[in-house]
Specification:
alpha+beta; five-stranded mixed beta sheet
């Protein structure tokens, strides 16, 4: 007679509970490994971007412009060339760079989702960045690829009419509101030292609070008050216009990982309170400028000497400003 004994219900539940505990312990470890790999990939991206920038400077004797803005009010209306377009040949993107129209940049959008501007370049995207769609349709079947990185625009880079132009990159050219006769910088212009000055850093595409304001304050005909969802910002090949500075430049106008503090429904409790679209512009400008990432506790940065480091979001804003300004002559110390 067979006298085999099976599991009792209690024993089965105990086994399931143990497996559940083990899975619960394992998942954070797996997530930690994935994030470590994503951070390393992001740091390598920034290293390659910094190297490309130095190779560009060696070949041209100057850094590329943040945005070279052609006259804003002449046809076509939006005409600009960004830092990442200038860097294409130095990022092993010669085929993409070949034939790029820098005189009428909107021509590069021809082809819709298959256009030059719609190209998604993995080296310009952090694996941890929460980009909902890439490329995106900006309207009228004009597509742009997004980037997770921005050049150092100094103390403030957006709105471009208030740009301080004390970083490495800025908006120059006939259409620039602050530097119509500006020229790109040389390495010798970074008098605080290359190891003490940020070259590029990360941007985060995640800010649900901002997005509630973008929905509540839709663009108005003839108004300069236009607020985008964060997922729609960061076109690496922006064709120009006011927001081009916000697409490719970041700065120390806000702390690392700054996000809009409240949703639209809580706007009255903000300091200062938001009462209309004009009063939200202060928060929007800070958010557009802000370095940040979805890596826990901080973001990756490439310094102007080509080194890459992770900087904590607890870094005081005053220290971040010292790191962004190229020529203030002040000592930074440990950070």
């Amino acid at each position: 007679m067979n006298d085999r004994r099976g599991f009792t219900l209690i024993e089965l539940l105990v086994v399931i509970a143990i497996i559940g505990v083990l899975v619960g312990l394992l998942l954070p470890a797996v997530q930690k490994v994935r994030e470590a790999a994503a951070r390393a990939k992001c740091q390598n991206n920034l290293k390659q971007i910094a190297l490309a920038t130095h190779n560009y400077e060696s070949a041209i004797t100057r850094f590329p412009a943040g945005v070279y803005q052609l006259p804003f009010l002449t046809a076509p209306k939006f005409r600009g060339v960004t830092v990442f377009v200038y860097l294409l040949p130095f990022l092993e993107q010669d085929n993409l760079a070949h034939g790029w129209d820098k005189t009428n940049p909107l021509n590069n959008t021809a082809g819709g989702a298959n256009s030059k501007t719609a190209t998604v370049l993995p080296i310009l995207v952090c694996p941890s960045d929460l980009i909902l769609q890439n490329p995106i349709n900006s309207g009228s079947n004009i597509w742009y690829g997004l980037t997770s990185y921005g050049g150092n625009g100094g103390t403030r880079s957006y709105d471009p009419q208030f740009a301080t132009n004390d970083g490495i990159f800025s908006v120059i050219g006939p259409g620039s509101q602050t530097q119509p006769k500006g020229v790109p910088l040389k390495i010798s212009d970074v008098t605080d030292g290359l190891s003490n000055t940020i070259l590029f850093g990360e941007r985060s595409h995640w800010d649900p609070n901002n997005d509630t304001f973008a929905t509540a304050f839709p663009p108005m005909m003839g108004s300069m008050l236009m607020f985008d969802q964060m997922a729609d910002i960061g076109w690496w090949a922006s064709s120009g216009g006011r927001l081009a500075a916000g697409d490719v430049l970041l700065s120390a106008f806000a702390p690392i990982n700054y996000m809009v503090p409240e949703p639209f429904s809580q706007r009255a409790s903000m300091n200062p309170p938001v009462t209309n679209a004009a009063s939200y512009e202060y928060y929007y400008d800070r958010r557009i400028c802000a370095f940040g990432s979805k890596h826990p506790t901080g973001a990756n940065f490439a310094l102007a000497d080509g080194s890459v480091r992770f900087i904590s979001e607890t870094l005081p804003l005053a220290t971040l400003q010292l790191l962004c300004v190229r020529n203030d002559g002040q000592t930074i110390g440990d950070y």
